[in-house]
Amino acid sequence: MAQPVAAERIQYVIEGGARLSGVIEPSGNKNAALPIVAAALLTPERVELSNVPRIRDVEALVQLIRTVGAQAEWTGRNTLTIEARDLRPADLDPALCARIRASILLAGPMLARCGELVLPPPGGDVIGRRRVDTHFLVLKQLGAEIDASDVYRFRTSGLSGADVFFDEPSVTATENALCAAVAATATTVLRNCASEPHVQDLARFLIAMGAEIEGIGTNTMVIHGGRPLSGARHRIGPDHIEVGSLIGLAAVTKSEITIRNAGVEHLRSTLMNFERLGIRCRVEGDDLVVPAGQTMKVEPDFGGHVPKIEDQPWPAFPADTMSIAIVTATQCDGMVLLFEKMFESRMFFVDKLIGMGARIVLCDPHRVVVAGPATLRGSRLESPDIRAGMAMLIAAMCAEGTSVIENAQQIERGYERIDERLNALGARITRNPPRAT
Ligand SMILES: CC(=O)N[C@H]1[C@@H](OP(=O)(O)OP(=O)(O)OC[C@H]2O[C@@H](n3ccc(=O)[nH]c3=O)[C@H](O)[C@@H]2O)O[C@H](CO)[C@@H](O)[C@@H]1O
Ligand SMILES: C=C(OP(=O)(O)O)C(=O)O
Description:
Its main location: cytoplasm. This protein is an alpha+beta fold.
């Protein structure tokens, strides 16, 4: 069994009030890198992935694929090569599996290659219940037997294509289904499936390996299974959630920044909802400029009614940008309702923003009303999850005085060297302990 991984405690100390300026490039999309690293197990040949975010979740998944026998080496700062010549359904470290949601993404590729996998339950952000039912539903229809008690036992005597209707458009279940379907015999149709940029990126990687997939970017995908899958080279696309985080950060610190290679084709819903907060960005080729001097005035709905920012399945506003929208709204003039429909505890972090001086009413676990602008005071904070942690970092950067964020390793699950990269723009963030490299 793999060695258990000790959890490192990280603290950020932030001096508020710094103006930022300059150019920043978003990292590769965390939620694309994770399924693509898992999908590299589908072939015994060499896979080379570039623009892979060097974040804690990816490092954890790399350890898991090594446990099942894959060779995985970082051949550059963000380049990962994987060769899964001899795979075995080895015992996986339960603590490591419980640390990331993406451990469940091993199911599809391991069923395809080894016909079995014993998986301790996955984890990920503690933001409410994380269903696995859709994974079971689709994998069973593609020919898997699943016995789920304390651990999940997946087994198949052969995957075969099916016409599958998802009970909900689950992102990771769609990714598992894609990996199983490309290796299955015959054709699979996935209906009511997810279509986020990371699902699209995985599909493009599978095509680079030799798979045949139609309907990328829609909620019906058709996979002609059984094509030989070879090694491939693939560049992970930019992280649209990180871009959303940088837009919010620039706006509340009244800074002008340029986000280089921002993946502008995936930003329509993000830009539309920031516009509702009086924040307008400029697209310049592949770059996105967030100008200083935003009006930061909430745009009421027709008739002067309170507007709403709500998340919905892609291509609408992403749930992972919701915490960023909340903190941004605290600095905008007017009142706005923010409605997050998926996770039951993602919004509870707003009590920390309220403690800093924000004017927010938590109506229920899914809705907050924010009335701004409010002057925020530096505070001692603890990050419960990736996006709430990022929202706290943004709040700290526009607050008066110094803030301390404990548990910042949560932020680093999803944002690569964010302290260093923001300091290069003029932020004043000290990481404790200092970074080794
Ligand atoms: C490793 C990974 O990729 N994690 C992402 C993945 O998790 P994960 O795959 O665990 O989330 P799921 O997609 O399974 O679960 C969320 C469910 O809520 C639905 N839904 C979504 C938005 C919305 O406003 N209303 C709604 O009902 C989704 O369509 C989905 O059916 O997708 C989530 C939803 O995007 C993101 O938060 C996670 O960062
Ligand atoms: C919820 C998230 O991640 P995960 O699904 O990996 O927990 C996220 O990225 O905001």
